[in-house]
Amino acid sequence: PHPKYTVMAKLYLLLGFRNEELRLAQWEHIDTKERTILNVSQSKDTPPYKQYLSDMALELLESLGEGHIKFRKGPIFPSLTRGGEVKPISRWNSWTMKIRHDPRMPVLDPNDASQGLEEPWPYIRPHDFRRSGSTWLQRLGVPLDERTIWKGSKVNDVTDVHYSHADDATRKRCVLLIEGLLKQIEAGREQVMFEDIEKATQAVVTVS
Asked: What digits encode the pLDDT tens for the residues 92-149?
């Protein structure tokens, strides 16, 4: 697949963003000192919030441009209009098509009731990465309320300092857990990455 597609997929897994939340993200939303990216959510039920950026997330973002991140301007994933104007990419179609025709990609069977499909679905949607990240966290024993905070479906009142900091800590812990699993996958250990849940969780608690 296109190298930027790989970056995009990993960022969705790490950050738990919705499709448009990452697609429309701007370099100005990143605070390198705080190691956060502002999620300017388009959902009326979710106010903007800051998601933690792990080492892997920062490295992925660094790979998308030249110069230090804090000096970059405009959309993280840019495209050009016919008039030459730079704007956020309007859709991932060109990249999802590359995955769709990859012979390694399994085709889900609509006859399998567990898939909940009415027709074959031979490619991955950006939203599937968000769901996968949440599933990984569930298998690692992360409670539902914390997984919900990580993916931005629940944000406590930002005027309450105590709960705001608690949410920040929760997001950081979740991002680090997912980063740990991604590193195991990259090392070819995806078949055993959930074998020692307690050890994986403890490693994140130690560094967070």
From this structure: 666 556 555 555 554 544 454 444 544 445 556 777 888 889 989 998 899 999 999 9
Exposed e or buried b per residue across 45-74, where buried means at least 16 C-beta atoms within 10 angstroms of its C-beta: ebeebbbbbbebbeebbeebeeeebeebee
pLDDT at 72: 93
H or E, element range at 52: strand 49-52
- pTM flag (> 0.90): no
**Rounded to whole angstroms, how far apart are CA atoms 101 and 121?**
12
* Angle (CA) 190 194 197, round 5°: 150
Q: What does the block give as tokens for 126? A: 């950006």
Contact (Cβ atoms closer than 8 angstroms) between residue 97 and residue 5: no
Give 143's contacts (C-beta < 8 A, 6+ positions apart): none
- For residue 142 the two structure tokens come to 């992360």
